Amino acid sequence: MDLAYTDDEKSFRNTVREFLKEKLSSRLATKVKLGKRLTKQDMEEWHATLNEKGWLAVNWPEEYGGTGWSAVQKHIFDEECWAAGAPRTVPFGLNMLAPVLMKFGSDEQKAHYLPRILDGTDWWCQGYSEPGAGSDLASLRTSAVREGDHYVVNGQKTWTTLGQHADWIFCLVRTSSEGKRQEGISFLLIDMNAPGVTVRPIILIDGEHEVNEIFFDNVKVPVGNLVGEENKGWTYAKYLLTHERTGTANIGNSNAALEKLKAIALEQKKSGKPLSEDPYFAARMAKVEIDLKALKTTNLRILVDADNGAAAGPESSMLKVKGTIIRQELNDLARRALGPYALPFSSEAMEEGYNEEPIGPDYANAVAAKYFNNRKMSIYAGSNEIQREIITKTKLGL
Amino acid sequence: MDFALNDDRRMLAETLERFLSDNYDIEKRHGFAMMDDGFSKQMWEKFAELGIIGALFDEKAGGFGGEGADLMVVFEALGRHLVVEPFLPTLMAGTILAGAGGQEALLEQVINGETAIALAHGEPSSRYELASVSSIAEQSGKEWIINGDKSVVLGGSAATQLVVSARTTGEADSENGISLFLVEATNGVTKRNYSTINGYGAAEIKLENASGILLGEVDQGYKLLERAYAAGIVAISAEALGAMHVATDLTVEYTRQRKQFGIPIGKFQALQHRMADMLIELEQMRSSVMNAAGNLDKDRLDREKEISACKHLVGTIGRQVAEEAIQIHGGMGMTWEYAVGHFAKHIIMIDHVLGDTDHHLERYIALGRNT
């Protein structure tokens, strides 16, 4: 047991730091740090920068153009990116579709889609949830009926994050209503520009357009767009849930949020003294810091074990629950730290070019909005209640 | 970065676990706790033979371990079986003897299981403040004469040699001016022995012109104390972790067997999610104990921050696990006969040893201000 970073790991951290210093524009970093609205171009710009360096597909094996990094290296990269204020990479193609294609896709599919994810040709979004299928995902009803060399898709997906930018959507669709519900689901790739696809925005409580509804009205999808076998889509989706652990714990994200919180608590005053010296507030900050410190180690233990070939269990569920609780607690503390200045909000001030005098401190505008936005964390990707179900079923066998 | 145990430690863990599984069930444990000194001398000798006491100390001190990972392995196993023999007092007093130097002969006896030692540091009004020492030591020719009261001295009932803290200069709460002494528990030492609620031997100790041998340098005892407390906290936290694991396992198993409304109560979601949270927090606890153990020999500030973070979590996670274990067991969790209550009791009472969850949260904050 040795918890210290090796010399190689330390020098890797320096390399990442230097890269970020050189390649991450202060324009982007400032936007991220102030919680401003990122455009599609902002995200594409950062993807391109990472891809040029070969550091975009952090989780991919080298044979597909990934980094082939160890768990510890990925962890370091994640920490440094967040600390520097890099935009997060859009995960749908990179971290959600790609592993499924690599494991279950045809050679043709791999050769066609994977390079296009890397070079930014295709922006992917995820089509899992439906109005009637949230936590109970297997009850999904969007249907794909085989007609000759096409499927005809009808139905509706919802909560589709950044679907407004997407060229493609990977969907779970129903191809059979026989037998168990899980056994009639297939994994289908659908062109967002195909006739019959309609995107409608859903505005969330922070006023932002982040998610969408997607409607499919007799959309023709070539059978070549089926991934793996028909009616095996549930297995592929589950594979992703248990194997995709990187980033689940939100360590880098929470690190950056904690540092920001500390800065706010130092600047905000209570009875003339920094809020960070208030015993009650200091105790709440210390508690979440201690939890985060432990979670960092839990995360690394789990990722290093997985690197060493440990079987997938409910670990990603554990990381998801605890990681989101911590991240949301940090949002709550940041909001409280601002006191009355959490109240003023200007949607215009979320834009890059906004030049007017801020109301209160310049970092205050997005804080309450971010708190509301991050309430999603305990709901998305399998609500925390669903994660506890998974833990119970797999770990406790109940 | 490497989280795996090396082969030696894995063997140590297996040896100890096998020995305890064969010799230390809950009935036997109650029997040992009822013995005169609050533990079984025979078991203590066997632990010594197995090399478990030696695993607490490094080679310079005559042992073959002494690193954080050694303490973690040993104490986690002890916690799984609620072992009542005086490992913690031995570790803490022994760490001071080893740190001070010049006590190799005594340490050899300790490691062989022949001599019982304890650290007599806390006082009736010191609560958890490490620097709060009112006992007084004065030099008289070659020897030191010590007067004062020491409270809740774990292992103090059985110890024949005591490591005693006393003030040689400074105010009653000053870090500077504390000195440490080796005191034979005979002339000038009055013990009032008792058992703690969770079954461990302890004593209130009165020192009246007791004579002591100075350990280390005069006035400079605080550093040795703090290092001994750090080792003690790694140990007791690992012990709590072991006990929490058993409490959780027993609880899960019970919900498989126990039926209400015609089905096992483990099928009820209201209980399932709480057990899932217990499992998540157990992983957090293990990580925190590893952080503390892995930093035991690092720079003081790094070490102490991890130590306080860990002991804070032992208090909060421990309470969650212990209270849920009792609650989910229902009435069975309340009985003396069934094991889980004893595990819960030990986990809860560990919060009162070497600083509780509030004390260590406050300390963690204060240490953060020093960076």
Model description:
The complex is a heterodimer of chains A (398) and B (371). Chain A has 398 residues and is an alpha+beta fold. Chain A folds into three domains: 7-89, Orthogonal Bundle (Butyryl-Coa Dehydrogenase, subunit A, domain 1); 123-231, Beta Barrel (Butyryl-CoA Dehydrogenase, subunit A, domain 2), CATH 2.40.110.10; 245-396, Up-down Bundle (Butyryl-CoA Dehydrogenase, subunit A, domain 3), CATH 1.20.140. Chain A has twelve helices and ten strands. Chain A has helices at 7-23, 26-33, 40-53, 71-84, 91-104, 107-118, 233-243, 251-267, 279-307, 315-337, 367-373, 384-396; strands spanning 124-127, 143-147, 150-157, 168-174, 185-191, 197-203, 209-222, 226-227, 269-270, 273-274. In chain A, helix 10 packs antiparallel against helix 12. The two termini of chain A are 33 Å apart. In chain B, a hairpin with a 2-residue loop joins strand 8 and strand 9. In chain B, strands 1, 2, 3, 4, 5, 6 and 7 form a seven-stranded mixed sheet that branches. Chain B has eleven helices and nine strands. Chain B is α+β, with helices and mostly antiparallel strands and 371 residues long. The chains are: A alpha+beta (398), B alpha+beta (371). The A-B interface holds A 1-6, 9, 72, 279, 282-283, 286-287, 289-291, 293-298, 300-301, 304-305, 318, 321-322, 385, 387-389, 391-392, 395-398 and B 1-6, 9, 68-69, 252, 255-256, 264, 266-267, 269, 272-273, 275-277, 279-280, 283-288, 290-291, 293-295, 306, 309, 312-313, 361-362, 364-365, 368.
